[in-house]
Amino acid sequence: MKFSVIASDGNSRAGIIETERGLVLTPQFMPVGTLGTVKSVSPEELGNAGAEVMLCNTYHLYLRPGHETIRRLGGVQKFISWPGPVLTDSGGFQVYSLSRLRNITPDGVEFRSHLDGSLHFIGPEKAMEIQQALGADIIMAFDECTPYPSTYDYALNSLRLTTEWAKRCRAVHPEGSSQALFGIFQGSIYRDLRLKSLEEIVGTGFDGYAAGGLSVGEPKELMYEIIHATGPVMPAVKPRYLMGIGDLLDVLEAVEAGYDIFDCVMPTRNARNGTLFTSTGRISIKRAGFKEDPSPLDPECSCYTCRNFSRAYLRHLYLSREILSMRLNTIHNLSFYIRFFRLMRDSIIRGEFTEFKRKWRETLERNFVTLHSRTLRTS
RNA sequence: GUGAGCGUAGCUCAAUGGUUAGAGCACUGGACUGUGGCUCCAGCGGUUGUGGGUUCGAGUCCCAUCGCUCACC
After folding, report:
1. The dihedral of CA A128, A263, A98, A114: what is its sign?
2. 379 residues of chain A, pLDDT tens digit each
3. How far apart are CA A20 and CA A70, in angstroms?
4. Among chain A residues 237 through 296, which have CB within 7 angstroms of nucleic chain B?
């Protein structure tokens, strides 16, 4: 993997990640394909939506079908038939968010599967072994996702553990591997702990750096404070990854601070739950106001969904719980997200990111439906 | 035709004769940030089939009537 910054505007930057399986233009959004699939869409549809890199989940693929199985089948990219690069997270977050009865020790985490309750253990070495077997282009160090709220002392101990684990990951996955390894820093909402953690992780030496443990329930102002405190001081020559974000308002802040890549379930999960993103704001497709609305979801969007279907039909599919609802909604939301990122990248290259951010903040904070129904009333 | 049972929210059903008749689903609105297609929050919705009667008080007891279901002719 190779990374280069081609333009910057303030702290924000436009770059290129070169992998053996293709280029990733940054800033970039990575759709989340937890179990080796972005729910409801095919790899072809994912590519058509503009996706350049896909995220898969170590924890889930380890539990089912098993990392050794995927290795024997030629690696995760071949297994899922996705031609582009793949990033796997380490499993640290899922151990934190999904499994019951987790027991954290200096060696790793003992936990029970959310599928069948069976007992498992993942530590840094195991996390590397699993991710090496999966064979993703970019893999992540095993961290402890510090919960929110955490006391200062807990966060301090947690980041020490994450540093220790990061070193052990690096030790069993040396520099120069065909799989890039990114380090994750923690530190909760404490600015000094964040900087300390970042320094220790950078000191260990990775191919990219990621902020973990954000958007776990803390107020946005605190998250923004951490984003702005860390982004500009992360190594400029390496990709900067903000894990699990997100909300496009949060993305604007993070790109302003110099972050490059993002992943989030928001566009895909919200698509399945009927919340859609458009060039004029968020809408809930289940609203009764769309019952007989023949217009496309987003007139400014050229995705398959917007080219072919009306809001009325999308609402009908959603209320009927049809499979196609999730598929069309997911295609649209991903297309919208990825186009948003491309436009954002263009604005950085042109030196107009500030204007881009100002304009989109207004749009994203706007309530589409309120405006829409007001229009209908006056017409 | 005879007998029995049942009529309560859009649907399926609760509610010793005793506060303002409730629940699930549906419907309406909202939430969702390194994913369990889940889940959660809030709201709308009633002349208790109809008409009488008993009672301090009736969804509940009595009479009539209408409707539905089942059984038997």
Report:
1. negative
2. 999 999 999 999 999 999 999 999 999 999 999 999 999 999 999 999 999 999 999 999 999 999 999 999 999 999 999 999 999 999 888 877 776 667 889 999 988 888 888 888 999 999 999 999 999 999 999 999 998 999 999 999 999 999 999 999 999 999 999 999 999 999 999 999 999 999 999 999 999 999 999 999 899 999 999 999 999 999 999 999 999 998 999 999 999 999 999 999 999 999 999 999 999 888 999 999 999 999 999 999 999 999 999 999 999 999 988 999 999 999 999 999 999 999 999 999 999 999 999 999 988 876 554 334 333 332 2
3. 19
4. 243-247, 250, 263-266, 268-270, 272-275, 282, 284, 286-289, 291
Rounded Cα gap, residues A59 and A66, in angstroms:
9
Q: How far is the CA of A338 from the C1' of B16 (A)?
A: 64
Alpha-carbon span A276 to A272, nearest angstrom: 9
As ranges, strand B nucleotides with an atom below 7 A of a protein CB are 27-39
Buried/exposed code over A180-192 (b: 16+ C-beta within 10 A; e: otherwise)? bbbbbbbbbbbee
Non-local (6+) Cβ contacts of A105 within 8 A are none
CA distance A56 to A25: 19
Answer yes or no: are the C-beta atoms of A113 and A63 closer than 8 Å: yes
Those residues with Cβ within 8 angstroms of residue A102's Cβ, 6 or more apart along the chain or in another chain = A95, A96, A109, A110, A111, A112
Q: Which among A186, A187, A231 has a CA at the least distance from the CA of A212?
A: A186
Q: What angle do CA A289, A295, A299 make, to 5 degrees?
A: 120
